[in-house]
Structure formats: C-alpha cells, structure tokens
Design goal:
- The protein has about 300 residues and is an alpha/beta fold.
- It has two domains: about 170 residues, FAD/NAD(P)-binding domain (3-Layer(bba) Sandwich), CATH 3.50.50.60; about 110 residues, FAD/NAD(P)-binding domain (3-Layer(bba) Sandwich).
- About 20% of the residues lie in helices and about 25% in strands.
- The protein has five helices and 16 strands.
- The strands form five sheets. Strands 8, 9, 10, 11, 12, 13 and 14 form a seven-stranded mixed sheet that branches. The chain has a three-stranded antiparallel sheet with strand order 3-4-5, with no helix packed on it.
- Bound molecules: flavin-adenine dinucleotide.
- The site of flavin-adenine dinucleotide (FAD) has 34 residues, from helix 1, strand 1, helix 3 and helix 5.
Length: about 300
C-alpha cells in the first residue's frame, strides 16, 4: 500500500484479514488528511475529529505489525510500474520494492498559487493554510484565498469565533462555498482574478482583485490564508485522466487505485476506506485466488 490515510489503512487491514503479506508505506504520519480535520460529522462510529480517528488507525496498523502481519515503512514513493508477474515501486532513496500488486492511495496534495490560473503572485509569496490557522492568529482583516471545503470545516470547528473571513472566491469554487454562504462570519468576494504583490513600503501584501464584472479593487492586506484546494498526488507510472486523477480501469491490472486519488467526486473518509478494502478484494479474486493463493 502506498499511502496510509483512510484508504491505505483500510486496504492493509483487509489484506491482513486475507492472510496476504503487506507493506504499508507513507511519507508522513499514519492517517493522512485526517490530521487536518478539526470537526467531523459524517463518519459512523461517533468520531468527531480527524486526529482521533487517525490515532485509532495508527493503533490498528501497530497491532497488525506486532502480530507480524504487516510491515510499516516510512518513505516517499516516486514511481510505480506493473509487469506480467509483479508490480514495482521505486522509493525516493533509490530502493525498488516488488509485490504481487500495489494499492496506490496517495490522495490529493495542496494547490499552490502558481497552480491556479486565477491567481498571480510574487515569487516570494506564501500563505499559511486556513485549515491550520488558530483563531488567535487571525489579527486584523483576514483574507482567504479560495473557497475550498476546509472553510466549512474551519467554521464548524470554531463556532465561537466572530472574526469575518473575506473569502476571495473564483467561479470554480462557487458550488463549494454554498455550505458557508449563510454564515455571517463569511464575506464571499466573487473574483475572476487576484494579483498579489509586495507593497513598495511597509509590511503585508497588495492585493488587486478583479471582480466578476471586471472592476478592480486594491486592498492592503496583512493576513492571507490559503484555501486553494488540491490536485491529485498521482505517481509517475500511473495513467491519469485530463484532471490528473487515476481511473482504475486505465491502470495495469497489478496496480489498484484507492481513495481520493480516484476522482474529485468521492473525496470522503468512508468512501476512501471502502475503496481501499475493495482494491484488495479485487486483487484477491482476480489474481491471488487464480494462482491458488490462500486466505479467507
Ligand atoms: C480540511 C479537510 C476537511 C475534511 N473533512 C472531511 C469530513 O468532514 N468528512 C469526510 O468524509 N472527509 C473529509 N475530508 C476528506 C478526507 O480527509 C479524505 O477524503 C480522506 O482523507 C482521503 O483518504 P485517502 O487515504 O485517499 O488520502 P489521504 O488521507 O490524503 O492520505 C494519503 C496518504 O498518502 C501519503 N502519500 C502521498 N504521496 C505519497 C508518496 N509519494 N509516497 C508515500 N506516501 C505518500 C500521504 O502522506 C498521506 O498520508 C476533509 C479533508 C480536508 C483536507
């Protein structure tokens, strides 16, 4: 399994239950994006925050590891490939691991301003992510670049915060903003373009906002948070669609895709878990059993 977010861990748990030898690799902490979710409302089992669920998933992997059923490795995958008799994974440190099959569950990764057409920013511009911001850090007027879903999560996690978030919202994010547009703490600013430069004097940023009617407004901004959304964390060797996602039916039969990497449409924890388990079952019935492999 590449990736130990909800999809990769569910895949590992299913594989171990079928007596398949399993290695789980992740470049970061077990739990993936769960560590960013401060308020959870749609996961069965009374889970109310992502980090607590991540802790439980890490404990699951640790139990499997202690039982000798699963190896857990820290490292970054840089390439995968499928072959007639095996699948191969290349790591950043140059090692090549082989397996009967590889489940790729690397999820999605943050967009930077240079990734989106509606933002032009100075080379030294960087903005901390909204999901990590604490209410104490919101000093003065706070602008948010983009209306991706972490906005709703952040507002739910901080019900007592009264600060207004000025959210620069391009047409592509409009449907995502629907869940927060009635929240009095959100001022949605429809934009077609945003240009961010360093002011000639003083601190902060000069932000030139072009509205959807073409009118320009210039703001002097001290606090900008990034909430631009994400892009698929596809690895070289995978087949991608026009949006960069990795549809299963276009991959080599020894490569399985699970979780958020499949499509922009199913980016939820429970669907990620289901797809991780299914990826392993598909391998089990297509390849392992046809070879006379064991299992339950
Ligand atoms: C702020 C926020 C709030 C959210 N709120 C909710 C919610 O309330 N309810 C809900 O259902 N969903 C929510 N989601 C979505 C949910 O987090 C994802 O759908 C889910 O985590 C996807 O699981 P995954 O395993 O596919 O990917 P991820 O959780 O992204 O895990 C991918 C893992 O792969 C690892 N990885 C990536 N590339 C490599 C590489 N090259 N080599 C090795 N490892 C790699 C990463 O380190 C990561 O651990 C939210 C997401 C965010 C960002």
């Amino acid at each position: 399994m590449i990736g130990a977010g909800p999809a990769g861990v569910a895949a590992a748990v299913m594989a171990c239950s079928l007596n398949l030898r399993t290695t789980t690799l992740d470049a970061g902490p077990i739990g993936g994006k769960l560590h960013r979710i401060s308020a959870l409302v749609n996961v069965p089992g009374s889970w109310t925050t992502g980090p607590r669920l991540a802790e439980a998933l890490a404990a699951d992997l640790e139990r499997l590891r202690e039982g000798g059923r699963c190896t857990v490795e820290q490292g970054r995958a840089v390439k995968v490939s499928g072959h007639d008799e095996r699948a191969e994974l290349t790591l950043e440190d140059g090692r090549v691991l082989t397996a009967d099959t590889i489940v790729v569950a690397t999820g999605v990764t943050d967009l930077a301003p240079s990734d989106v057409e509606w933002v032009t920013a100075a080379a030294d511009f960087s903005a901390p992510p909204l999901w990590r911001a604490t209410p104490q850090e919101l000093t003065g007027r706070t602008y948010v670049l983009g209306a991706d879903r972490p906005l709703g999560t952040w507002l739910r996690a901080h019900p007592d915060v009264t600060t207004t978030l000025h959210v620069l919202c391009p047409p592509t994010d409009r449907y995502k903003a629907a869940e927060v547009e009635d929240d009095p703490r959100v001022r949605l600013v429809p934009v077609s373009h945003v240009a961010i430069t360093k002011p000639r004097y003083g601190e902060g940023w000069t932000v030139v906002v072009t509205g959807q009617d073409g009118a320009e407004t210039v703001y002097s901004v001290t606090s900008i948070l990034s909430n631009l959304g994400n892009k698929p964390a596809a690895l070289p060797g995978l087949v991608t669609d026009e949006d960069g996602y990795c549809p299963q039916d276009q991959q080599h039969r020894r490569i399985r895709i699970a979780g958020d990497l499949r499509s922009a449409r199913y980016q939820r924890i429970v669907t990620a878990q289901g797809s991780g388990a299914e990826a392993v079952l598909a391998y089990y019935y297509d390849i392992a059993l046809s070879r006379g492999g064991g299992g339950r």
